[in-house]
Amino acid sequence: MSSEPRTIALINPNTNAATTDMMVDLARETLPEWRVEGYTAPFGPRMITETVALEESVVPVVQLGHQVAEHADAIIVSAFGDPGRTELAEALTIPVIGIGQAAILRAAADGPFGIATTTRLLADSLRRLVEAHDGEERFTGIELTEADPLDLAADPDEQFRQLLAAVRRGSENGAESMIIGGGPLSATARRLRDEVDVGIVEPIPAACELVSSMLHPAE
């Protein structure tokens, strides 16, 4: 019996390689016994902040997915809108998990939940994503930051403060857990866990846990 570790291909639909490295590190921390390989979209948006960019990122994700599928046991699409996930899942025989999908399934299983995010122009797309995974009955809504997402990406402390306020609003609106909606927001999501009373759902660890449950790796 082979002792080779399982391999996850983590695809970053953004073209920012530093973001890919950060998300891969988090996935490796979640599943230290697995091999996690990161892939950055070779073209498309540097950061997905609106619907056109979300749609434009589908093609590079699908292309990368087909390229890496031969040597991967599963693929994680690591942008919260899950661009290209459906297309890859329909075409490939290995599990293809989106971080948005995984976070919604995880949060909805635990009770009322909301989403805190910086991408105001993706709000409608995120509501549709919740509906696609049958989470609307427990969904309390989307809580948005005030500043431009690119400005917040350049100022982690301000990003933290504004997402903290968004999480607290979600709690006041009845959420028992809040998804921090965005792969590039993963570091801030970690900081928020110790600052609020509601549960913080981190999309990348949620995706890793879902992949693990689907593949049932040997102990």
TrEMBL record:
Molecular function per GO: amino-acid racemase activity
Organism domain of life: Bacteria
One Pfam family recorded for the sequence: Asp_Glu_race
PANTHER family on file: PROTEIN DCG1
Family recorded in the similarity comment: Belongs to the HyuE racemase family.
Name recorded for this polypeptide: Asp/Glu/hydantoin racemase
Organism encoding this protein: Brevibacterium celere
